Amino acid sequence: MAKTCAITNKGSVMMGGYSNRTRATQFNPVGMRRRYPNLQKKKVFVPELNKTITLEVSARGIKTLQKNGVFATLKKAGLI
Questions:
Q1: What is the pLDDT of residues 23-57, one digit of tens each?
Q2: Helices 59-68 and 70-77 sit at what angle, rounded to 10 degrees?
Q3: Could you tell me if residue 27 is inside a domain?
Q4: Would you call 53 exposed, middle or buried from its count of C-beta atoms within 10 A (0-12, 13-18, 19+)?
Q5: How many CB atoms lie within 10 A of CB 37?
Q6: Which CATH number does the domain housing residue 49 bear?
Q7: Residue 37 in contact with residue 51, Cβ under 8 Å?
Q8: What's the pTM?
Q9: Smallest Cα–Cα separation from 40: which of 57, 54, 62, 23?
Q10: Residues 56 and 10: beta-carbon distance below 8 Å
């Protein structure tokens, strides 16, 4: 399964490059590396459906669930 958030669709990105010291001296370059989102498995209860759903959601997605409500957020994301 791909490492992406079910709600925000955040995925991995390539980051890195050169440190500031390397820019000054052009010695010992730092390579690129892949950064992954902060994904966590969460069980959420949807009272409208009377069901519990397990999601793999980023930390930002969890905050979105709490702010906008579970049903509205999952409907907007196309998961219901």
A1: 666 666 667 788 999 999 999 999 999 999 999 99
A2: 120
A3: yes
A4: middle
A5: 20
A6: 2.30.170
A7: no
A8: 0.77
A9: 57
A10: no
Which residue matches tokens 């390539």?
14
Report CA-CA distances (Å) from 47 to 44, 63, 65. Answer: 10, 18, 14
Task: Determine contact, residues 71/80, Cβ cutoff 8 Å.
Answer: yes
User: Would you say the C-alpha torsion 54, 59, 60, 63 has a positive or negative sign?
Assistant: positive
Percent of the chain with pLDDT over 70: 81
pLDDT for 50: 96
Establish if 61 belongs to a structural domain: yes
Domain region containing 22 = 13-77
| Cα–Cα nearest to 74, from 36, 48, 38 | 48
Distance CA 39, CA 41 (A): 7
Higher per-residue pLDDT: 10 or 2: 10
Supply the DSSP symbol for 60.
H
